Prior knowledge:
The protein is mainly β.
Amino acid sequence: MKTSTARPTTFLTAEWHNLLMANYAVEPSILQPYVPYGTELDEWNGTYYASMVGFMFMHTRVRGFSVPWHKHFEEVNLRFYVRHRDPQHGWRRGVVFVKEIVPRPMIVAVANTFYGEKYAAMPMRHHWRPTADGALEVEYGWKVGEEWNYLRAHTSQQATPIAAGSEAEFITEHYWGYTRLGERRTGQYEVVHPRWNAHEVHSFEMNCSIARLYGEAFVEPLSQAPKSVFMADGSAVKVMGGEKIG
């Protein structure tokens, strides 16, 4: 197995804000067909997680340039967790996306072309509103056919540091993306950002066309109550250029 030795350059810079993360226990047999070559499923305390994540891209620039009407936009994705043993650097912990939803077809074209990701364009909306009881109401919506799907939560307004060794640390501290390019070919790219803080989530709702978006296999696990929900505050990020494993 070989990894490209070319030094990646920065492909995209942005800010990610208010990452609402609902984390579900999923049987490994459901995730295994999506695992890219050269990676293996990663687990925390014996649980294999898939996460529904909604957040905002802000101030997005591709190779240093901003594109009108594509600087600020929502994303909702379903992702799970893998690791890859790099010959020089040891274990790298990363994520695999089952599907990523954004509101602009151009974003889909760029991400799918350059990274081999599974992006889809749908109408989207969001809001962040302070509530009378001192909480924050957060919602990310995406329209599937004629139905609005959503992730919706009430959270604390203040974020606190994520504890070392915690489940939230496991969920957030994966700094690589992996994509399946073929039976024995995988793309990898690094996402660079500082350690995040997290808001406590007081209540959470999800309405999602699971079978239509992700397939029947995900209906049962994503219809259960999530094992955890929190909202990471986010930060500036850099997405590095892709490399290939294979």
